[in-house]
Amino acid sequence: MLRTSDSTDRATTPATEEPRTGSAPARLLAQRGLFFGPSALVPEDLYSRVEQGTARRERNRVTLAPGSLVSTNTYFGRFHATYWQRWTDVGEVEVTAVATGTGRLRLMASDTNKVWRIVASVDVEDGKDTAVRLVGPVDRFVDGGGMWVEIRTETGELTVSDVRWTVASARPVPPTDIAITTHNRVDDCLNTLQALARDPEALEHIRTVHVADQGSDPIESRERFAEISAALGERLVYVRQPNLGGAGGFARGMIHATDGSLDQHADVLLMDDDVHLEPELLIRLTAFLASTRHPMIVGAQMLNLLHPGHLHISAEYADPEVLAMGLKMPGALREAYLLGLDDRNLPINQERRVDTEYNGWWSCLIPAAVVREIGYPLPLFLQWDDIEYGYRARAHGFPTVSLPGAGVWHADFGWKDGDEWQRYFTIRNGLIMAALHSGFSIRRITGRLAQLVSHQLVAMQYGMTATLLQAVEDFLNGPEILWDGSAGALARVREIRKAYPETVMHPMSEAGGEFHDRPVVRAANEPGSETLTFLKRVAYHAADRAAYRTGAVPAGDAHWWHVSLFERAIVTDMSEQGYRVRTRDRQEAIQLARRAAHLLRRFVREAPAVAGRFRAEAGRLSSRENWARLYGLDD
């Protein structure tokens, strides 16, 4: 294991010059053919399907009984040819395998409408470690489609192993650094590092695994850390630093990857600590990036950790003027059940190519050339930092692709409650994003802020309202609020929220009669007119009337138009791990409403000029020098 020094090399190099590396290999491993996941905690049908008969599936091999059929037309099993044809000059893909027994292997392909065709076929007769080769042209997939392998037996048994998809290599694969940021998620981070250490082939092109530990419970204090450190050897670079959020941890890894002269730079794969890692994504992301026509960001897709058969989203965009992120691109899959079938009984895959506008940093590969050209993340702490960087890259001519088949399991977003301190960064950083990457429509932004405040007040979320108002005030204070890396904002908003009891989640062990003796009141249909419904709820609150004096509200029914019917609501937290108690407080609501009205008037007057100040300071805030200062490395 290596540790970073206390200085940062800030040598500058031309962004257009490419690093010099060795000769390119004749064939590049684009992906391995896997039949089973990294552990039994994920469904094997994400890798291969036994469509007929029986088969024993292992990580790198499958054994079919007589009369069986196994298909890899699955999320991890497909070669997503449409993305390769769109973004690379690869003309064909070669599939090799080792077969023992008797049976048939076919290379299959699909078009944009999931209509399949046979590309190549090989019969094996009483084979013993027989080499199999199938070749498919990557020539009819511009709008969609992919390739996969089908293995069939009739009267004999067949074992297929070591399936490898390779492409001609136009240039060498550059070295890649993995940058992981962690904060008091010791076991999660150690599990991720251990998964890396256990797959040496996936680590082949990885130069460094850089861990920025920002927590008070350091991972190096655990016995497992010593074992993992020994396994990774000099690949592991571990550094402890103050808590500067995800942006601060990732920026540290990006600075390490671009230290020194140009030929010492590495691409950087940003990765969250709390993921269930599929090490195969290292091969797929680095091979795809090494094949693209021009430098671009290549992101892994997110699958839900609690529901591992579900894809969170395959391509997304943001609308910062209404503080909305994670919006689904037209035609993209969202919360898709990848183990299911569509209305034609065909597997659910991202058949049509859908281009994305950014990729989340749960796992995302950024070329060194991009970092040299556009700089480092803004010190936003968390929320919108990855989105801002993706849009900044697009503005400089570097697109992003979210590559199907390169996936990682990450904590489900739908199981995170919105009434947390992170909401401050969602609002404040969203406004900064709007200032930098939108027309900054005052009408749209103030309309959205007013809507959020109104809904939160009638839903008795006074702490959330105070959180939002603080975020808006800090935005209006200008780019100076980012000068400390947002550490001060984190402490401030946590202190503010302590005054509001409904922000506290109570564990079920504290529930007693408070929770169990209250009737559960489910929400009715959504209102036909939100405006009329809101005005009616305001009238009820002003007159101190309520449809229900008290009651329990399930998490999925905690809409503002439903919770506002109560004088006191016991609401299940979205995590399903406890509950919150919301109690009507007319005086608090009036005070917050007056503060909001004053603040929004100020926003209309001052925000355009503030947005200009953020645009003027963005380059300095995202510079190497600024991050070195925040890390205390600028002496």
Automatic annotation (TrEMBL):
Q: Does the keyword Transcription regulation apply?
A: no
Q: Does the keyword S-adenosyl-L-methionine apply?
A: no
TM ranges are none
Could you name the domain of life of the organism this protein comes from?
Bacteria
- Domain Galactofuranosyltransferase-2 C-terminal: residue ranges: 454-631
Q: Which Pfam families match?
A: GlfT2_domain3, Glft2_N, Glyco_tranf_2_3
Tell me the keywords, alphabetical order: Glycosyltransferase, Transferase
Q: In which pathway does it act?
A: Cell wall biogenesis; cell wall polysaccharide biosynthesis
Residues in Galactofuranosyltransferase GlfT2 N-terminal domain copies: 54-166
Q: Which residues form a coiled coil?
A: none
Protein name in UniProt: Glycosyltransferase
